Amino acid sequence: MNQKSSLTQKTKKELVVEILRDAIVSGELEPGERLLQEELAERFQVSPTPIREAIQQLVAEGVLSHSPYKGVQVAEVKLQDMQEVYLIRSVLEGLATKLAVPNLKISDVQHLHSLQAEMEVKASNGELAAMRKLNQEFHMLIYGSASAPELYKIIRNLWAKSPWDTLYVLPGRPMMAIEEHRLIMSAIDKGDAESAGQSMETHIERGIRVLADYLKANE
Q1: How crowded is the C-beta side of 174, counted as CA atoms within 13 Å?
Q2: Which of 64, 100, 155, 202 sits at 20 to 30 Å (Cα–Cα) from 37?
Q3: 50 with 13: CB under 8 angstroms?
Q4: How many CB atoms lie within 10 A of CB 182?
Q5: Residue range(s) in the chain whose domain bears CATH number 1.10.10.10
Q6: Is the CATH number 1.20.120.530 carried by domain 79-217?
Q7: Confidence band (pLDDT; 50, 70, 90) for 111?
Q8: Any idea which architecture 3-74 has in CATH?
Q9: What is the C-alpha separation between 150 and 166, in angstroms, rounded?
Q10: Tens-digit pLDDT profile for residues 171-197
Q11: Which pTM was predicted?
Q12: Which residues make up the CATH 1.20.120.530 domain(s) of the chain?
């Protein structure tokens, strides 16, 4: 295989990895859902090879799981594992927010306010699937502005490993998250990177803490 062909194949694999990871984060693919290579190849209009390589990478990352009996599935995560993932997320996402604040353009901040306003409407109307996608865009806009590509990559992978979304599980959690976002935005508006980072860290920590309390109360 020549170098050009190899580069093209690698690009296709990376594209499939990105699409699958986004589908898991957005809730389009749910924990335990089975993935068939043939269907994915047809869906993405690529040969089986990049599909197979993408699945191998995501299995190695723990985003997907594979067994002889169940095949390839979106990984199902236990609460204990989730608590560790959220703890790591809180630290890294707080750091990314702190780094992002000095880099956010006026247009970025305006877009964040727009996303926040849309989320408030969706939460009020009970449109949680739509709110989830807006929430993802809100967070990734901030983290993507940190000028720390490796940090951004790690955070995106951790999001794919934490498919339990507290917005769906907990009564009243959507509006709680909205209030926490307002604190983050207030700090961003003031250009207070330290406070914004701390507010983001608290936001992530509170999500898993409330989820854990809810699950234990309903055992």
Answers
A1: 22
A2: 155
A3: yes
A4: 13
A5: 3-74
A6: yes
A7: very high
A8: Orthogonal Bundle (1.10)
A9: 26
A10: 778 889 999 999 999 999 999 999 999
A11: 0.72
A12: 79-217
